[in-house]
């Protein structure tokens, strides 16, 4: 709907239209969304179709698809690809509204723990209210960090933000669909923070949109769900008015960045179906890495 409206706005009006949208309409969009979903959400809860650990639909902001099914599928990948164990200390950067935390509550035990950080107040509030009281080893933290798409009023720059965790605190760190919304100086800082708080030999799984020969060819053939037509300060973005909507990175640059941050990519990279690849495990590309011991 938003995308359809955007097409009718002349490019030169877009910056002003965005400001107007955030100032005047966004609060109403959220009220309308709540009104629209209110009764179906309540019915789902009362009939047992939605558990208390699934947020109501009007609160969801983490992308389309079945909240529960996607979380469970990704948990399976964490176990199979990244060797996640029940006793691991886990960090979820950009945890949203608990899509991964919820399935992990049934898996992490025997000293296993979970920390989630995000920049969206409502998401963190929901997780603190609904998950932590039942699972005290699951904690959530709000970072007051700016992101044009998710937190346009954020105070701190993601390119300078320091995670509030001690060095080498985690066995496993993951980011699902987060670097796909962040720009180059931001992912550079975050990857160095990830390396700092990850234990030596610790594992990391990050999903991205990687540009390489195959994905670029499929984009050219219009097989892809994103075209990433625009260069934005060295990155390729899908929508130049809203660059953080979807960001893609050159695979060679990404590999160098991992190397610089002492993270060894464990081959293969699991390429996703986002660009029209067939028979894939996932939608976005999965990069699984390990922090080097020396
Ligand atoms: C598509 S959602 C994915 C959320 C969650 N990882 C999931 O899979 O359900 C992208 C998330 O990245 C978060 N995000 C964007 N920039 C961030 C930043 N600089 N630091 C932490 N989280 C960020 C957003 O707030 C949003 O929750």
Q: Could you describe the 3D structure shown?
A:
The chain has two domains: 1-50, no CATH class; 64-291, Vaccinia Virus protein VP39 (Rossmann fold, 3-Layer(aba) Sandwich), CATH 3.40.50. It has helices at 2-7, 14-46, 67-82, 101-105, 121-130, 184-197, 213-220, 251-260; strands at 89-93, 113-118, 138-142, 170-175, 198-208, 210-211, 230-232, 235-237, 247-250, 263-265, 285-291. The radius of gyration is 19 Å and the shape is globular. The longest helix has 33 residues, at 14-46. It is α/β, with parallel strands linked by helices and 294 residues long. A seven-stranded mixed β-sheet has the order 3-2-1-4-5-11-10, sandwiched between helices. A four-stranded mixed β-sheet has the order 6-9-8-7. It has eight helices and eleven strands. Helices cover 35% and strands 19% of the residues. Bound molecules: S-adenosylmethionine. S-adenosylmethionine binds next to strand 2.
Give descriptors for this structure.
single chain; 294 residues; alpha/beta; Rossmann fold; seven-stranded mixed beta sheet; four-stranded mixed beta sheet; binds S-adenosylmethionine
Give a nutshell description of this structure.
35% of the residues lie in helices and 19% in strands. It has helices at residues 2-7, 14-46, 67-82, 101-105, 121-130, 184-197, 213-220, 251-260, and strands spanning 89-93, 113-118, 138-142, 170-175, 198-208, 210-211, 230-232, 235-237, 247-250, 263-265, 285-291.
Say what the CATH topology of the largest domain is.
Rossmann fold
Ions, cofactors and other bound molecules = S-adenosylmethionine
Q: Biggest β-sheet: count, sense, barrel?
A: 7 strands, mixed
Q: Using the CA coordinates, give the radius of gyration.
A: 19 Å
For CATH, the homologous superfamily of the largest domain is named as Vaccinia Virus protein VP39
Number of helices: 8
How would you write the strand order of the largest sheet? 3-2-1-4-5-11-10
- What class would the helix/strand composition place it in? alpha/beta
How do the helices and strands follow one another from N- to C-terminus? HHHEHEHEEHEEHEEEHEE
């Amino acid at each position: 709907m938003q995308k359809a409206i955007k097409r009718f706005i002349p490019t030169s009006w877009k910056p002003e239209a965005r400001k107007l949208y955030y100032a005047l309409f966004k609060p109403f969009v959220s009220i309308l969304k709540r009104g629209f979903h209110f009764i179906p959400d309540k019915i789902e809860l009362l009939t047992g179709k939605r558990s208390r650990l699934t947020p109501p639909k009007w609160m969801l902001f983490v992308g389309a698809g079945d909240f529960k099914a996607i979380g469970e599928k990704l948990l399976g990948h964490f176990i199979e690809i990244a060797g996640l164990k029940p006793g691991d200390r886990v960090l979820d950067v950009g945890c949203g509204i608990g899509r991964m935390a919820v399935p992990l509550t049934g898996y992490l035990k025997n000293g296993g723990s979970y920390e989630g950080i995000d920049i969206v107040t409502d998401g963190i509030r929901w997780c603190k209210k609904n998950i932590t009281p039942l699972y005290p080893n699951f904690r959530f933290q709000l970072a007051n960090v700016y992101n044009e798409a998710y937190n346009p009023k954020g105070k701190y720059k993601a390119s300078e933000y320091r995670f509030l965790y001690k060095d080498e605190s985690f066995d496993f760190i993951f980011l699902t669909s987060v670097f796909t919304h962040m720009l180059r100086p931001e992912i550079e800082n975050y990857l160095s923070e990830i390396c700092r708080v990850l234990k030596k030999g610790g594992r990391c799984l990050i999903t991205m949109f990687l540009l390489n020969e195959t994905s670029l060819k499929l984009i050219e053939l219009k097989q892809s769900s994103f075209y990433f037509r625009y260069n934005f300060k060295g990155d390729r973005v899908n929508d130049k008015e809203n660059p953080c909507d979807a960001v893609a990175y050159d695979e060679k640059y990404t590999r160098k960045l991992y190397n610089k941050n002492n993270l060894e990519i464990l081959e293969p990279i699991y390429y996703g179906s986002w660009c029209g690849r067939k028979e894939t495990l996932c939608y976005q590309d999965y990069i699984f890495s390990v922090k080097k011991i020396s």
